[in-house]
Amino acid sequence: MTSQASDQESSGKPPTARSTPAREGFPFTDDGAGNGSRPSDDRGRHIPADIELKWQRRWEESGIYRAKDHVEGKKNWFALTMFPYPSGDVHIGHWYAYAPGDAHARFMRMAGYNVMHPQGFDAFGLPAENAAIQRGTHPRQWTLANVENMRRQFRLMGNSYDWDREIVTCTPEYYRWNQYFFLKFMEAGLAYRKAGPANWCPSCNTTLANEQVKDGKCERCETAVTKRDLPQWFFRITKYADELLQMDEIEWPEKIKLMQRNWIGKSEGVTVHFDVSAFIPFAPSYVATFTTRIDTVFGVTFVVLAPEHPLVEKLTQPAQRKAVHEYIENARRQSEIERTSTEREKTGVATGAYAVNPLNGERVPVLVGDYVLATYGTGAVMGVPAHDERDFAFAKKYGLPIRVVVAPPGWSGGELDAAYVEPGTQVNSGEFNGLPSKDGMQRMAEKVEREGWGSRTTTYHLRDWLISRQRYWGTPIPVIYCDPCGTVPVPVVDLPVLLPEKAEFRPTGQSPLTLDPTFVNVKCPKCGRAAKRETDTMDTFMDSSWYHLRFTSAHDRERPFSLDSAGAWAPVHQYMGGAEHAVMHLLYSRFFSKALRDLGYVKFDEPYKRLFNQGLLIKDHKKISKRSNPLNPEPVVEQYGADTLRLYLMFLGPWDQGGDWSDAGIRGVSRWLIRVWDLVQSGYPSPQPTPKGPASMEGGDKGGVSGADRDTTRASHMTTKRVVTDMREFRFNTAISALMEFTNKLSETQAAGGVSKPVWDDAMDRLVLLLAPLAPHTAEELWERRSHAYSVHQQALPVWDESLVAADTVTIVIQVNGKLRSQVVLPAGVSEAEAIASALADAVVQRHMEGREIVRKIYVPNRLVNVVVK
RNA sequence: GCCGGGGUGGCGAAAUGGCAGACGCAGCGGGCUUAAAACUCGCAUCCCGCAAGGGAGUGAGAGUUCAAAUCUCUCCCCCGGCACCA
Questions:
Q1: CA A101 → CA A20, A68, A157, A358, distances in Å?
Q2: Distance between CA atoms of A538 and A474, rounded to whole angstroms?
Q3: What is the number of helices (H) and of strands (E) in chain A?
Q4: Cβ-count burial of A408 within 10 angstroms (0-12 exposed, 13-18 middle, 19+ buried)?
């Protein structure tokens, strides 16, 4: 430790003004942080505040992270971390989301790629509007102040963003292209307007975005969300349902793919028509039901309609009218949580009408029940209590018959205690009796189609994307309503439709834009007569659906992006972000890619080729948030520095599994980084072995190369291999462990001496280079202090030689009957015979074999011998 | 209920068929210090033993194997997602 102090003295500099000697006190806690007058080449101490600011400035001035579309001899790599919503609440979770992504981007840059790593802000959204209501600031003011704060945080992190490409979605330069794409989608029939239910919070008296409904409740006031019918704009995402299921070419976590598959919810079945012409004299005279179990159709004992089903009114007989109306009223009043609770008892009411099962000609009662969803399938189901759990419960409650038509194996013909939903043998099914239900399903489907009773149908859980929002802080939908001309798109040349600056945010339940007559009243672009603008704004997921493409042409005034630039960078090579966006953003964005491809804007199918999901950072078993569990990064940065914080967040554990923050743990990586700092600057150790003795050195001198040299070289190459392979796969925690082991080893070597200068220098350079993506400021400073040319971040990663990684000797474990008994050190690549001979010669092993017969000997090369005795 | 992910020392975690607990935190002991902090060296899964050594051990239980944290089956617990999708 004295080497720094003596260096400082011998350098002839006057002692610094500090009263404490170097290394005393925890380095970052005292007087110093942020003292600009201190010379930044203070040798002895690692002072993050100085070097971090210094390099952040230098990186910006020299523009080393600015990406060019093409660089001779390099492949492009588009590294993107999901851009943030600029909430006022910047916490350490943001660092956890962004710093490892930056480390990986830096790693890829050093791995020889032409990397673009941009950043922007998802700046439209409800919180800004809520803040406006609460504190009387304009959403723009609140948002832009937060953007400024987050930019500062990103700079503090030392992230290698190309700030020239920054995008802020609430600017007209960005959102005009949302409007542009909306119009293109309209032209292509991908955008349409129809009345549809929106999530409605009765307490806030406003609609909510889907992402603001959690467990059926309003996020802010926890009021149960209901539905309200409004004319709304939709994107026809269902057109791509099948293609969206196709995910072979994207390298995403299986979990996310599965979530998307579940969300799309493709299900193949049969639509069967139940005749009701006896009750409705005019067409349509049947109730269409959707089933995936046509094999159970002979077991239908009733038909249930959703309360919202259009035929309910027509089918209800006079005697039942009152009861049915009451039932529907009651259902309507229920919240979505109540309606969809699986716990709830199933209820229903008879309409008095009957429907005819086309397969067997039976008349079965038609009921209304709110366990049937109006929005799925045909909004009506055939009730098969014997083979569907819900129908079973419903039939039990109302005493409806239960008829078995798919017999369980060994069925005695008796009553069932519960619905039997597995395959079986057809019974009570007319001509299909005796068939396995699997075949029955085929044959019955064929018959239904042949007889014209219905058809094979595929349904999806996925709905078209409702993009209308009754809010102010979003992209105005560029449409004008004119009495004679109808719905008229705003001509592209008139874009952008600017969001009016002044707005009222009274919670009236109406879109705030309706309150601005200068916005609403407009001349029809077609006929010139007085007309009115659409006053809803777009869902903010519109912004994030294509922002990655805007990064490729951030400043293009003529187009959203150019085909060339998009082609140079997209699809994003590595996308990173939380799993909370698994379905919404990631699905919308995939839809957008396919739509843009069909419209000729891009030439690929998918937005994000590889996806990595980081886990959640928690503290004391709770999520970190401003309100309940705050953890502000800035005091941590002040105390330890950004590099230490970055390292600690990556060291916590595997990035995809999330991490548990502890205030104490960070001191470990802090100490380590200081040790690295000291080690790299401590100078070349003695070429002669010191009396401290190299106990750990193996092999001694060989061919003029000292044991210390071979040992150090091996450590250098092994560490290079470990760090590079770990970093590639986002295993930051084990990469850092490998570097820690390397520094521990080098500290020993330094104390022991006996290493030659080229070997030592090579080790030092590797250490700094491998550290660079993880702790970019410290590595940059050390690189400079080792008299290398700027910048360490423009260097290539070190390479390793596999032959130098392998050890000369190996420790072979000896087991007797699978139990560890001894070990021997032998030359690497020792033959099986030799290894076994050494094992059998071992005294401890002999003791355990005494008086027993050897039945088997197992040798795992360079690892283990297992002697099996009896 | 269904679908994922997970359960390893006091703590964060390594190890994905071959030495369980690398690396680090916290802890204990030594050095340095008037002292403390910092730094540094060492010890550390548990049990028996002065030690040498032995035994047990990766949520529980069974199985496969010369060998299982790792593979198979049954069950328990935690986290996340979906949830009357006919």
A1: 39, 20, 11, 60
A2: 6
A3: 27, 34
A4: middle
Lowest-pLDDT range of A8-12, A615-619, A709-713: A8-12
Q: Give the nucleotide nearest to A296 (CA→C1').
A: B86
Distance CA A649, CA A160 (A): 17
pLDDT at A788 over 50: yes
In DSSP terms, which residues pair with A489 in a beta bridge? A479
- CA→C1' distance for A333 and B84 (Å): 18
CA-to-C1' distance for A849 and B56, Å?
Answer: 22
Length of chain A: 870
- Nucleotide nearest A390 (Cα, C1'): B84
* Pairwise CA distance, residues A170 & A164, whole Å: 17
Output the distance from A832 CA to B71 C1' rounded to whole Å: 27
Residue A667's CB is within 10 A of a number of other CB atoms, namely: 15
Angstrom distance, A280 CA to B15 C1': 72
Which pLDDT score, from 0 to 100, does residue A363 have? 96
Q: In which element (H, E) is residue A411 found?
A: none
- Rounded distance between C-alpha atoms, residue A235 and residue A183, angstroms: 11
Structural domains of chain A in order of their starting residue, each with its CATH number: 69-169+544-623 (3.40.50.620), 179-236+466-538 (2.170.220), 267-459 (3.90.740.10), 680-806 (1.10.730.10), 807-869 (3.10.20.590)
The residue with greater pLDDT, A842 or A322, is A322
Nucleotide with C1' nearest the A737 CA: B23
pLDDT for residue A13 is more than 60 = no
Please determine, for residue A14, whether its predicted confidence score (pLDDT) is greater than 70.
no
| A609 SS3 class | strand
Mean pLDDT of chain A: 87
> Is pLDDT at A459 greater than 80 in this prediction?
yes
B chain positions with any atom within 7 Å of a protein CB: 3-6, 11-15, 18-20, 22-26, 37-41, 53-55, 66-68, 80-86
What are the angstrom distances between the C-alpha of A767 and each of A159, A289, A398, A674?
A: 20, 68, 76, 13
- Rounded to an integer, the average pLDDT of A97-117 is 97
- Of A272, A267, A285, A268, nearest in space to A447 by CA: A272
From the CA of A105 to the C1' of B15: give the distance in Å. Answer: 28
Q: Pick from A491, A533, A495: which is nearest to A511 by CA?
A: A533
Q: What pLDDT shows up at residue A286? A: 93
Rounded CA-CA distance A630/A561 in Å is 39
**Identity of the highest mean pLDDT range in A276-285, A547-556, A678-687:** A547-556
Give mean pLDDT, residues A672-698.
Answer: 72
